[in-house]
TrEMBL record:
<dbReference type="GO" id="GO:0000981">
    <property type="term" value="F:DNA-binding transcription factor activity, RNA polymerase II-specific"/>
</dbReference>
<dbReference type="InterPro" id="IPR002100">
    <property type="entry name" value="TF_MADSbox"/>
</dbReference>
<dbReference type="GO" id="GO:0005634">
    <property type="term" value="C:nucleus"/>
</dbReference>
<feature type="domain" description="MADS-box">
    <location>
        <begin position="7"/>
        <end position="67"/>
    </location>
</feature>
<keyword id="KW-0539">Nucleus</keyword>
<dbReference type="GO" id="GO:0046983">
    <property type="term" value="F:protein dimerization activity"/>
</dbReference>
<protein>
    <recommendedName>
        <fullName>MADS-box domain-containing protein</fullName>
    </recommendedName>
</protein>
<keyword id="KW-0238">DNA-binding</keyword>
<keyword id="KW-0804">Transcription</keyword>
<dbReference type="InterPro" id="IPR036879">
    <property type="entry name" value="TF_MADSbox_sf"/>
</dbReference>
<dbReference type="Pfam" id="PF00319">
    <property type="entry name" value="SRF-TF"/>
</dbReference>
<keyword id="KW-0805">Transcription regulation</keyword>
<dbReference type="GO" id="GO:0000978">
    <property type="term" value="F:RNA polymerase II cis-regulatory region sequence-specific DNA binding"/>
</dbReference>
């Protein structure tokens, strides 16, 4: 015995939804659909897109290609941005040579993407370095109760400055805690 067939896609009357649960579900689904359409528009046409949707509860949802900041600063500069760009500059621009405008935009986006990848690579390298330092500190603390009792002779040149910074942070935290106890006494 099967279940009855669904009603499928139906046309609905566009009006305010009174039921708050249905309203939240509708907001979520429509927002997702809108974001998908905006993403597809950007992908298919190469358009710079910024979408900000505020939920009835005041929460903001944003989508931008290449990023919200990039699009806003380019087409609607913030006060204090004196780069001469912005929406008015684009509208007044001589569009008789649209190819060069597109090439400049693509070059700018590719530059941003390249810098982002370089930054990610540097971040990954730094994380790997810090994990190696942490591993050496773990090995140096083997058989000891606390990390600050590590055998500093077992640490190398790369690990000693990190270990010293950690010790200074520990000392500063203990001093702050002591000061707060003394102040409350």
């Amino acid at each position: 015995m099967g279940r009855p067939p669904s009603k499928g896609r139906q046309r609905i009357e566009i009006r305010f939804i009174e039921d708050s649960n249905k309203r939240e579900v509708t907001f979520s689904k429509r927002k997702s659909g809108l974001q998908k359409k905006v993403s597809e528009l950007s992908l298919l046409s190469g358009a710079h897109v910024a979408l900000v949707v505020f939920s009835p509860g005041g929460r903001a949802f944003a989508l931008g290609t290449p990023s919200i900041d990039h699009v806003l600063r380019r087409y609607a500069p913030l006060p204090g941005d004196d780069d001469g760009g912005g929406l008015l500059a684009v509208l007044r621009r001589d569009d008789s040579d649209p190819v060069n405008g597109v090439v400049a935009d693509r070059a700018e986006v590719e530059g941003i993407a390249r810098r982002t990848e370089e930054t990610k690579a540097r971040l990954a390298a730094e994380k790997a370095r810090m994990e190696a330092v942490a591993e050496k500190v773990r090995l140096a603390t083997a058989g000891r109760r606390c990390w600050w009792e590590a055998d500093v002779d077992a640490l190398g040149e790369a690990e000693l400055p990190e270990f010293a910074r950690a010790l200074r942070r520990l000392r500063d935290n203990v001093q702050r805690h002591l000061d707060s106890i003394l102040a409350s006494a």
